[in-house]
Amino acid sequence: MQESILHEEPCTAEERRTAEHIVGLERAALDKWFRGDTSGYRRLWSERSFSYFDGVVAERVDDHAAIAEFLKTIDGKLFAERYDFRNPRVQLGQDMAVLTYQLFAETSLIDMAYNCVEVFRREEDGEWRVIHSTWSFIRPMERFGNQEG
Length: 149
Description:
alpha+beta; globular; 4 helices
């Protein structure tokens, strides 16, 4: 990758592989997401421990069952020909990782401009899953700077 996705440099080969794996998991879920298939996130988000914030959800979602119900409302309805996954950054800890990035897409439901935060944990089965997800809108003043005077 041309720019570093890891917060800390230098890093070990294993840390780089882990960071690339985590980014790959997210991209695979997004690829499905923009084809109207929410199953990538249903599998990526932890059934054991999960919470979620989003600009289109009034309160925090506190478990996988509740987010699965929300996903049913958009399954098969959200499509985009392409999306822009910008500036991924992974910060690693012991069996934990935080992925941050910006996401832009013109979809069949809404135009997306999000700051995304995915907190991953390696679970007992050895798989990395998201235990917390935040998708917050990038407001115009945040996106383009203050245009006043």
